[in-house]
Design goal:
mainly beta, 3-methyladenine DNA Glycosylase, Chain A, 31% strand, DNA-binding
Amino acid sequence: MIRPDFFERDSVIVAKDLLGNFLVRKTQGETLRYKIIETEAYGDSKDLASHARHGQTARTKIMWDHPGTIYVYFTYGMHYMLNIVTGKKGIAGAVLIRGIEGCVGPGRLTKKLFIDKKLNGRLLGKKSGLWIEKGDDKRFKILTTPRIGIDYSGEWAKKLHRFVLQ
DNA sequence: GCGTCGATCTAC
DNA sequence: TAGATCGACGCG
């Protein structure tokens, strides 16, 4: 199992390093385990694509919490998004888990793994039933692209903060 | 209080 | 290409 200090780094580094590891979900005695194949990095208040861009609010303050904290939010009236908080406590940052093997899209991923608002603010681990396990194979190529769905963020829309396992 | 719109997905 | 669907956010 990956430890919290793995997440105590810049979100861009963590997003890249998460590829190839396994997202594990345990609910009602059933354990689901999928390889992470797509992530996006979101930064602090100067990242105009990040939820942190307007400072701390009731929803987004979790981005300033301990690294390894689960940040789940509801959007478009129907989808939950799964993020892991990165960086030291007090500095905003998160990695959006956009894709796992055999599943396309961040909204479908959370549905498949029974992830909803109840996990928001919990720490990754056996207790919350959601954690990351180290992948074995590190020999793969990583595709780097701009982030999806954040065209409003001006210059920040161009940043290559999306990572896809090839 | 109220209007706007989103780190999306699906069907037409 | 638009509709679903709702809560966070920002303005007043």
